[in-house]
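Hey, quick one: can you model this chain's 3D structure?
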Amino acid sequence: MSGIRDYIRDEALRRRLNQATVLVVYDPAHLYRELCHELADETVTVVDASLSGIESREAATETFVDLVNQGANGPKELLVYVPAKAPQSDEERMKDPFAIYSVSGAIFPDGDGDEYLSLCLKAKPDHVAEIRRLFDKDPSPSFELVNNIGGGIGYPTLRTLLKVDSARNILLALLAPSETQKARLKDNDTWQVETRDLLLASLGLKLVTKGKSWSAMADEIWRFILFSEFVFDLPAELPTSLTTVPRAVDESSHLVEDLCEAVRNDIRTRQTYIDRAEQVESDLKLPEICVGIEDLGKRDTFPFEERTFLASAVRALKEDRLDDIRLIVTHHRDSVWLGKGESQAQWGLVVAALNLVEECGDAERGLVDHVRSQETLIDHYAGRLREVDRLQREFEQAVGDYVSVDTIVDEVTDYARRRYAKITEKIQTVFTKHLETTGWPPQDRVANTDVFDNFVAPLLNERGPRVAYFMVDALRYELGLELHRQLANDGVSDIVAAHAQLPTITTIGMASLLPGAGSKLRIERDGNSIAASLEGQVINTVSQRMGVLQAAYGDRFAEMTLSNFIGNKKTSISDTVDLLVLRSTEIDSHLENNPDSTLGLVHQTLRTIRVAVHRLKESGFSDIVIATDHGFFLNGHADAGDLCAKPPGNWVNVHDRSLLGDGSGDTHNFAIPTDRIGIRSDLSTFCAPRSMAPYRRGLRFFHGGPSLQEAIVPVITVKLHGGRPSDDAQTNVSLGYRNGAKRITTRLPVVDVMAESTDMFSNDVEVLIEAHDEKGIVVGEAKRGDPIDAATGTLTMTPGQKIQVTIRMDLEFEGKFTLKALNPVTMAAYATIDLETDYAV
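Sure thing. Here's the predicted structure for all 841 residues.
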């Protein structure tokens, strides 16, 4: 590399442009204009805003449109040169016509590391003192002046052996040499003097070790550089016992930070950094010595710092300092220590709690504007309030996925659950008040009892359409929205909020989805329970309900469970079948049995539905209708006192959340005549808790009563079409684990997922990551939560991205397995790697 201008052009500008496609260079000192123009070629368009404001805007717009439209002969990258200071505030960005391009791509300079002085220090790290003296005299010296510092090309032996072209890159190679570089250093003993000279000149490090091998020197270099970054970043006073530990001179701070960032962020050297930092932390006893320091700066050089930052985030959450916790999370989103699955899980839990708490606060502030009627409250729930339930479900998923024992779990969980309980009780109070005065279901709204007659029957009356009717148990509204989003590419889809039949239990809710339920469904006493009937026929069981459809449609009708339809690839549907019913009870059964550990399985049902829709499309079905019997409530904050006492009366207890019979309400319960609550019955009164409490203590999951979560349900319709072409052929997905390691030592291993495409503007690719044992059984999945979609369990990637993903292995599994990156719709494999456990079960 011939000098500072080439370093800035190639390392700072060209590299960033290649990564971002669009780059805006702000240069009030007019230092970089020529360098920007030197980057122009047949693939890079450079727009110079110093020539003409209007023409440069038009040129930038035209080039950007060509990029988006992906013209075959057009440019591949856009650089905009602006001879002005970069906008700092939102107001300044609004006035800057070129700010939009920095949002779409990247910006230079971006942070202190891009200052001219910092770049010079990185380019010539062996001449730190001279460069600083030069800048003290002239804050913007010419490239020629900077190049003249030192003169000549130093360290010829190191450059030759390591095959690098600058002092900075020599230092990087000494920290983490490749196998080839190690071999060259081992075979040659003439480089040690140059190494000692370089370290002294660039960092102020006078090597103490008498060893002449690379490994002996590397131990001291790593300790020196890591400890130096820690000290440079520490706002507090350094503990007395650490003041004698050697560290770099202050003038080398930019170089130290640059070296550490480079090794941390390079996937090839990241594991080396982790191993070295853990060893240095242990050797210096940093966790014990720094135990009383709360503010350790912004960088987490060592693993114990990440623990401290996490503790700070938890304190901020408990003190409701949400801006502070968001700042902490943002600063540490890409921390190298999140490569440890346990750490990633803890931060994921904190982020899930933060998202929930923020949404609870927004919901509480916005509720007052939507309480005047039952209709406005329901519309507000379908439009916004259901986000509280979605984020609470994702939070409870994060809690269920967390396998380590740590007090942070209790602190974060208790706080977030209290906030959720507070807003849901407030909403429930308003909802039950309207229910008492208005009744149920709302007039002129979609009722579940009319779903078949309004959405399915009209399609069957036409000639040609083949309809698949999904009857999904416990698909609450917010989950329906997630499913609707996943099905958007399969056809023209729509979702409406329907109103479930009370009481919201499976036998009644599934009966309400049958033909004629709107006018003929009745609920009668059956001993100590209740039964649904249609035209005098009891329809409490699956076979009885399917018998109603069989009688109505004969050989035009067929039914099976969703799992059988997906599990048996040889299943064929007769050409005479126009109505196929697919039944799913997985969500309800999982959550009924053990909501704490099975909540994460909910997304499997959504994924299975999605795969089924794909198969139905291939089988010639044209229409999909997805309906459910009821929603549910996740009672994560249940405790010993979470119980509603029943009022006096002659009641049939219905699923712990409602009563039918004779009696009246009280302070804690409301009672309504059954005919005003949409129930045809010989039982005169419907009674339920005013709060979200059940009639049985300690329930973590329930349904059966009237609440927005239980009684507002989705109806999803999809008119199938061919869909957009798959990008599978254009996008390559690869998997990697710890630079080729074949054994995992933790139940939360972190893998690298990479997506590459030859087409710069190809669509995002969705990836499902699973671990399969030798029999093909799933023994591990990607842990839900950022970056894994909590509802689908999939990862959506933009070509060019590299993302770290935590795999949650089954606690009981031990042995060999294959990690697979799959297409979540077709289940075809993008990539696989073979691994084996190396931990005690």
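One thing worth noting: The CA atoms of residues 130 and 149 lie 7 Å apart.
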